Known about the structure:
single chain; mainly alpha; Rhopdopsin 7-helix transmembrane proteins; 3-stranded mixed beta sheet; 11 helices; 3 strands; G-protein coupled receptor
Amino acid sequence: MENQSSIEEFIFLGFSNHPDLQILFFLVFLAIYTITLVGNMLILTLTRNDPGLQTPMYFFLSNLSFLDICYTSTTVPVMMANFFRPRKTISRAGCIAQLFFLITCAGTECVLLAVMAYDRYVAICRPLHYTTIMSKRVCVQLAGFSWLCGLTNSLAHTLLASSLTICKSNQLSHFFCDVPLLLKLSCSETYVNEIVLHLASALIGLSPCLFTVVSYSHIICTILKIKSAKGRSKAFSTCASHLIVVVIFYGTANLNYNRSSSGYSLDIDTLVSSLFCIVTPMLNPLIYSLRNKEVKAALLRMARNAGNPQLQTAVQPLLENFQ
């Protein structure tokens, strides 16, 4: 038993079914990772420096962009490095660290998306009280609450996972560490871990999702009461980007964690997890920038302020294509 309980290294099986495509996978994920970093850093720069984006919505968006950078950076660099290794490994300490940051970011994003839904609810359903309700202090508190929820949830899972005795195998049928995978490999009691996992799913996953649904139910009812079509379109445009992001996030999360285990396929599991952990953080800045007039206007202002005519000439037609 001592030999079995001394596993200090895990082997990732994700993408291992296609050894001849490792270089292609590396190039694809390098492109996705680059777009994710550039897109989210651009959003961070704009929301921090542009006077037209100093509103609660863009304050929360900057938090979301920072989250997406951290989220994707937790898994992608390790995965890309493993494409060049015969054995795709990670140490136990590295696995626990990856688990901590991954759960922190995922949990924080769940709560933050609900906070952003509340912001849109106040803006559309109670517009006269918006500046009073969504004051700078309240926005900072709501963002801090989101991070606190994610951090607390992550600490609980990480501490419990680090105490597990892993002896069944050192092979993870994934390309990153996750709590359900470690529980399957554990030969110690996992009852408490499973209780905390289900409790966290309800509090950090389901509750923010239901809160978002309720918020958008009120938003849609309010929009439908607007008499003019132009007014309805303008009101809906202020929350359309966030609604798309919410649908993509919870849709891919549901596919990732609530699929039937019957007919399991490593390739399908890897593909779905890639959509949730890697592709979604890339889509968020694209959704918020290419379909958002305020962000596009800020991009043009940044190009003008840079004093580079070539940059302005390149940016303007690109943005016009997404009108």
